[in-house]
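INFO batch 0412 | record 1 of 1 | parsing
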Amino acid sequence: MTKETLAYENIDREFKELYVSDIKKTVVAFANTEGGILYIGINDAGEVVGLQNVDDVMQQTANTLKDSIAPDVMPFVKIRAVTKDGKQIIEVAVQNGTSRPYYIREKGLKPSGVYIRQGSSNQQLSDEGIRRMLIEVNGKSYESMRSMQQELTFTALRKHFQQRELKLDEAQLRTLKLIGDDGLYTNLALLLSEQCEHSLKVAVFQGSTRAVFRDRREFTGSLLQQLYDAYAFIDNYNKTKATFHGLERVDTQDYPPEAVREVLLNCLVHRDYSFSGSTLVNIYDDRIEFISLGGLVTGLKMETIFIGVSQTRNPALAALFYRLRLIESFGTGIEKIQQSYLDTAARPEFIAVYGGFKVVLPNVNEVQAKELGISADDVLPSSTGVIGQPMVIDPFARGIPAAAAKLAADAQGSTDAATAIMTTDTHKKEYAIQFELGGKTCTVGAIGKGSGMIAPNMATMLAFYTTDAAVSPILLEKALKTVVPGTYNQMSVDLDTSTNDTLIIMASGLAGNPEICEENADYDAFVAALTAIAEHMCAEHAGDGEGATHLITCEVTHAPDLKTARAVSRSVVCSNLFKAAVFGRDANWGRILCAIGYTPGDFSIDKVCVWLSSKAGEVYVCENAAYHPYSEEEAAKVLAEHDVLVKVDMGTGDASAKAWGCDLTYDYVKINGDYRT
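INFO prediction complete | emitting tokens
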């Protein structure tokens, strides 16, 4: 008898000689495509071989399909025993299911678990294909569709709900639409889980092109975590530049923080997550570009969003962000971005194209560089002001063009600049000297301001040095760092510090001297000139301290070491008791000795001698830590002069140092008593 042979396998027919658990792939593929019939008991060649214990195999097949496939495919499956060529086989007829995509439960709703029929084989469906099938079958938005992944965690989400004292139980997850009507997690849940498959990429470029990378970072996990992590990263590159107005300081970031926040929120809330690509942020020197996938929601135009019309692509996601108070109200993001730039000369750009939306935030501080015709990296803003009180940038942005136009490389230009930066200063501070380098006449000049809260490293002080000498950048920096410890760090008005100070030196090389590239005689001459300028400027700053009537200079000689010499000289000019004594013209040398005595250092106080000096004369007031006879009348005359010099001989070594301060007056209290009012 000839064996019966069926047609070969094709798109709607497949053969299995014996039962194998792998039949679930075929049933999934049939249910996800156009249906088909699976025969068990027929080999690959189409020959009927039959089955033993048909009833057992039918039960085993039914159990496998019921337990292994989700959603439940059994309403679309008919299993029966049939006879072919006198032999019993099993016929598994599968219809095209209505709850597609079907998937193997243990693999989940992802390519490894979702199959379709192509020709005579079962093929895995891609992520994009799964999403398209969900949209086609369910007619739902991406966020409301069943997540392809059901093993989700919500650490970040729960943290933010707890911080805002909001409940997040299963009922709330259903209300927020993280769980669908079928009891399974939606794509919204996936987006807010640590398993979120979408990322946000930030790239930092050098200059205004993509030619050179400076930094890059990819942020993953919950959209909430991406939001906070990306904002912090971007903020690290949002530089602050300071300007000033009178007594008040203005800190201006390159990009308004409110604008950065709103654009970032819009990118995450309104993008089309059916696209698998990342949200992109590109940071350049002159701008930040935010690129979100999906373009405008169907029906919206650029004109409509500018008048506040809002139609979100992901309403459930937007509602959740609103609940977390990350969004104040719908449709206000664009307006807030625009308003944050109202006080600047720059304006943000909004560009909509098919499949994408781009927002460009310009660097507001670039306006300074543009007016000067230089790179923004070459602009060095500085300011003093009231701590913790930022100011509106608008008046300064408007004034930059006029200020830039008045810049002049002459004596009057220097005087104008020195005058412009005065705050509580009573007079401008400006000084310059000339000297020879390599047969060329070179100049070092300085302007500065500052009359209070001047102390080492932190001070309400600005100082700008310029020179036409040719000095390599490395040695220019070294020279400044050599001079500062013995000058600016030896100056104090009231022992208090501020949060901002600036000391800048710039060299043009226009003098034409051979460039100083090594520590030689020319370098030493340059350091000597710089030191002379710095000592003069320190005296100017200290002598014009807030409310001051006297400049106090302390000159220490014969100290055991430089550290001790500097510490002793600073201790004297910083002594409030001695500062008050100078104001009262009281030659109270005991207060000087006290200030020296509590200074750390390896020296003997018994060897200290002290003189008080001014252009009115000199009095010897202390010898070997004891009283030296002097005339109180003569001492009062010495202390009546504006410039008072305290000479201290330590008698124990060869080191020397200077420090500069001022007296403590009634007016100091008056000035600082109503500093802000």
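INFO post-check: Residues 13-139 form a domain with the Methyltransferase, Cobalt-precorrin-4 Transmethylase; Domain 2 fold (CATH 3.30.950.30).
INFO record closed
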